[in-house]
Structures are given as structure tokens and as C-alpha cells.
Specification:
The complex is a heterodimer of chains A (209) and B (76).
Chain A: H1 2-27, H2 36-51, H3 58-86, H4 93-117, H5 119-124, H6 131-155, H7 162-202
Chain B: H1 2-33, H2 36-44, H3 46-72
Helix pairs in contact in B: 1-3, 2-3
Classes of the chains: A mainly alpha (209), B mainly alpha (76).
Chain lengths: 209, 76
Amino acid sequence: MKHLLVEHGAHLAFVLIGVIAFVWTAYRPERDKDAPLRGDVADAESAEAGRARTTVRRSVARRGLLALGPLLGAVATGAVLYGIDVGGGAVPGAVIWVHAGVSMLALLLVVYKVADMGLARVRRAFSRQHLPELVSIVLGVLSVPILVTGIALLFAPSTGSFSAYLHLISSAWWTSLMVWHLRRHLGASLRAVAGRDAARVVSPGRGVN
Amino acid sequence: MEASVSNLKPVSARTRLRALRLVILAAMIEICMVLPWVDHLADGNQTIHFTQHGFIFAGGVLMGLALRDVQRAPRS
């Protein structure tokens, strides 16, 4: 039983979190029971809005794209570490420190981006109609165990401890959610940044940057 | 608009039930994959090990799909 909890405790924790999130999302009571019709109309309208083209503020897009390089670097170096470990080889300390450094840079740039979005946007994510923003919140929440276990692994490197499993499993889920996040926002971010550049090119009296 | 709203209600209940079934299936897959006898097999064979983790990941994806469905569905 102890072996099961050490090795698969992180998996079971994610299952529990998933079930709780489902029950909360599907069965939580309405806030305004006297206006079910209004709620349905709002839901239908929000579903329409969800299908509409995503837009991203330019400053947020710029900061997000700035963080994208280190984020991909963190995923790539993490994959290298995992590959070396699965292959049974000794993991070089340099790769570990490069992974830690790139990941810290990525984290700081993400904090810089989130700071530009503001607390109101974060609060809005908890409303029923904003699943993509909720994914961003989950990404942020998942960063906490990744950071904590990452620091723990720097001090006590291991591949079979609970910290190592939690770091790996959290990172796998984080990467999947990141792909979902990028699928929705990458195109819009590129359009926002490119739109600004295009505006500069056509702007009279200004040189091309 | 009233007609479209009344059409949305049964869809919501149906979607919620379907999502619940999906969550139960996903949870069963996840729990089965971490049972000691599966773990024992996975320890002795790398292919079974990665298949086990593939199923665990697939269970999580199913759970995410169920969550997305109930999040998007209008409430009845």
C-alpha cells in the first residue's frame, strides 16, 4: 500500500482533483434560482462568444511570446532528462542545471505576463463561461508543485522518490494543458503582435522597424 | 429565443449524464492501471510500463473532456 501511494500517489491525487472539479462544475447550485431562463440565455450567448475568434491584448501577446521560448526550452530539457533517465544513463549535472535555469527564466516571464493581465481577468476565469482562462489558472496552480518538487530535487536528486514522480506527472499534465492553451491563444497572439508591426510599416512619417 | 432556450434544456441534462459516465469510466481506467498486479507486470516489462502510463494519460484526457463538456453545456 505504501509502495502504491509513493509510486502512484500523484496519479491518484490528480484523479481525485479531477472528480472534485467535475462534481463542482456539474452539480454546484445556481446562484440565482429565480432566473433560470436568463441563465440559459447567458449560457447560450457565452457559447456563441466562445466560438468567436479569440483576441489577445498586444502587450499580453508580446509578453506571452517572450515567455514561449524559455517554456519550450524547459519542456525540451525536461524531456532530455526524462529520456536519459529512462535509458538508464547517469544524468549529467549540467543538463539538470540548464533545465532548472531555463525553467526559472520561463516562470519569471510567465509571472511578468500574468501581471499585465490583472487580477480582474484571473477572477473572471472562475465564472462558468471562461474555460480557457480556467485552463490558465490550472497551469498556474500546477506550477506550484512543479516548482516545489523541482527545488527539492535540486537538493536531493532522485528518480524514484515521491518528489520525482510528482514533478514528472505534474509536468506531463502541465505540458498537455500548455498545448491546449497555445492552440487557442498562439494564433491570436501572433496576429496581435504582427498587427502592431504592420501598423508601424504603414504608419505615415515613421520608418520601418 | 424561447424556442432555442427550451431546446437547450434536454441537451444540458443529457450532456451532464454523458459526462458523468465519462468521468466514471476515466476514474476506473486510472484506478485499474495503478493496481498492484498491473504495477507488478509493468515493473518487469518496459512496454507494459509505457502502455500503463499511456492509459493513465488517456484516462486524464477523458476526464478533461468530461469537464469541458459540462463547462460548455447550458444548465437546465
